[in-house]
Each structure stands twice: as C-alpha cells, then as structure tokens.
Amino acid sequence: MTTTATATQQFMSTEQLLKHWQGHRNLTRRVIEAFPEKELFEFSIGGMRPFAKLAVELISIGGIALKGIVDNNMEAYTEEGFNPKTKEDILKKWDEETGVINHYFNQISEERLQETFNLFGQYEFPVYENILYFVDNEIHHRGQGYVYLRALGIEPPFFWERF
Amino acid sequence: MTTTATATQQFMSTEQLLKHWQGHRNLTRRVIEAFPEKELFEFSIGGMRPFAKLAVELISIGGIALKGIVDNNMEAYTEEGFNPKTKEDILKKWDEETGVINHYFNQISEERLQETFNLFGQYEFPVYENILYFVDNEIHHRGQGYVYLRALGIEPPFFWERF
User: Is B157 contained in some domain?
Assistant: First the structure.
C-alpha cells in the first residue's frame, strides 16, 4: 500500500476545534433552555437520566477535564461538586464553564494533543482523542435531549444553529 | 487581545479524522444491528423518524457528499437512490459506503479542507466544517437511536466501543 498524500496533513486547527466545540455548547445551552423547569429535572424515557443529569455530566467533564490535562492531574471523575436545583443554576454554571474551557484549551500545545494522558485516571488516550470524546459525548447526550423534547411535544432548536 | 500560541496549531491530522469517523460508523452499525427488524423500520417516539430512516439519511450523506466535494458537484441532497426493505439491505450498503468514504476522503487535500464549498447546492461552508457536520449529524441521530433502544428495553452498545 502506498502512503496517501493526506497522511500527514492537517484536518483542522486547534482554534477551529475550539470554535466548533463552543458552537455545540451554544446549541446544548438552547436545549437546556427549551425544557420546562420540572421536566428538565424529572422527565426521562426508558430509565435514562433526565436532561438535567446529562447536563451535569457535561459540565463535570469539559473544563475540569481540560484542567486535568493541563495540570497533569489524574483525579477521578466526579459529579459531586455541582448539585443544581434550578435551570438557572445549570445555565449559570454552563456560562462560567465557557471561559474555563477557553482558558485551559489554549494552554494545550499541538505536541501535547498527540501525547497519551490517563484522563480521570481511567481513560488513557491521546489528548486530542479525549477532547473529541468530550464533544462527541455532548452531541450524543444532546441527541437524547432532542427525543425528550419531541416526546414532550416541544420543538427542539435547529441542529445547525450554533452561534 | 494577544494572539494565542495555539492559533495556527494543528488539532488533528486528516488520517486521524478519518479513523475517528470510521470508528463512529462502526458504532452506528452496531446500533442498526441492535434493533429488531420490525422496530428498525417502524418504532419511533414523538413523531420522529424510525431509525431505518435515520440510517438512510446517514448513508445518503457520507460518501455521496465527499464525492460531491471531490467532483465539485453541487447536486441537491436526495434519499431517493436507496430504499432498503430489510436490516440486511441497510447493513450491506453501510459496509459498501465504508470504502467509498475512504476513497473520496483521501482525495481531499489540506488546502481544500479550508476552502468554501456549496455542498448539495445548499450548505456553503469550509469543507472541513461540512465533514465535521457529517460526523456530528451521525452522532446526533445515533443518540436518538439509543433512546429508541432503551424505550424498547434493549441495551445499546457501549458508546466508547468503536473498533
């Protein structure tokens, strides 16, 4: 097999990935907003977690995981630090994390992205794969939120509306 | 504001993106397989499309969209070319598309990824953003498939199982 011309080419820059992720975070914020207060914390299908719980998971990964990567800290994953009681609690924390994510993401170099890191002492992958996982995990859970909203008779935001 | 050090750094290579996408496609294939034949084509929640329809959408984008990018062809999006009647029809086409995606993806250069293309005569974005959209859209719809499976009492495949 011959080596393809694309083998060592750049797919996207770090700046483009960050913009892409924050665009997704804007959309997830709209999905949180679209839930009525009660259903955000209580509605679920098939024994899955309510969307508030999924939002807490996302908030417990993004900025905290990036900080772990930057600080070389392999502390275990936990959702215990954040126990929101209202939609407003979640949205406020969501917005705070926007700056935290930007702050730590910008401290991760191109070289570091290719190094393996044992995230949360559990997920040993190249750093870029861990970061893709954060974004993918958010899209995945938000897709579940879309089904919850449809089941509640609520029109979800457009998937392509990011900014 | 000062320019950050990361502004012109590579997040990931084209090869890494392709591997990442094909890993997601493997997982989506497992989700298709997990549905009972009848429910794949009929089950839905909140008026959404059954998972077979979502799979047809994904099959109608990936390889066809990449070919459009490579050929500079802005023909409109259509799902008319593929009308599966069985799960086996979908899985067979899914596997054929794996090679089609590899074939066309590898013809897209680093420079081309940054150029704007009017995909399907409708989505005018940089090529790398269009390709991210294909992957994101797959994760999004597959997340909906996870809810369908849970609602049917079926355990979905692990999200992190890609190869």
Answer: no
Q: Using the structure block, give the residue that is written with the tokens 């040993």.
A: A124
Q: Which residues of chain B carry a pLDDT beneath 50?
A: 1-7
What CATH number did the domain enclosing B130 receive?
1.20.120.450
Q: Is A153 on the interface with B (CB under 8 A)?
A: yes
The helix/strand/coil state of A19 is: helix
Question: What is the CA B37 to chain-centroid distance, rounded?
Answer: 21
Using the Cβ of A25 and the Cβ atoms of chain B, whether some distance falls under 8 Å is answered with: no
Residues 31-90 of B with CB under 8 A from A: 45-48
Does residue A126 fall inside a structural domain? Answer: yes
Token look-up 């969307």 returns A51
Name the residue range of residue A133's domain: 22-152
Scored b (16 or more CB within 10 A) or e, A67-89 reads bbbbeeeeeeeeeeeeebeebee
Angstrom distance (rounded) from CA B70 to CA B107: 7
Strand partners of residue B124: B118
Model confidence over A56-96: pLDDT tens digits?
999 999 999 999 999 999 999 999 989 999 999 999 999 99
Record the pTM.
0.95
Q: Where do runs of H (alpha helix) occur along chain A?
A: 14-34, 37-42, 51-71, 87-105, 110-113, 127-151
Q: Is B122 on the interface with A (CB under 8 A)?
A: no
Chain B residues near residue A148 by CB distance under 8 angstroms: 147
For chain B, the domain total comes to 1
CA gap A3, B10 in Å, rounded: 20
Question: Longest C-alpha distance within chain A, in Å?
Answer: 58
Q: B20: closest CA among B134, B145, B148?
A: B134
Residue B82 lies in a domain: yes
Q: Distance of CA B118 to CAs A16, A108, A162, B105, Å?
A: 19, 33, 19, 17
Q: Is residue B10 part of a domain?
A: no
Q: Give me chain A's average pLDDT, please.
A: 94
- Cα A72 to the chain's mean position, in Å? 20
Whether the ipTM is more than 0.85: the answer is yes
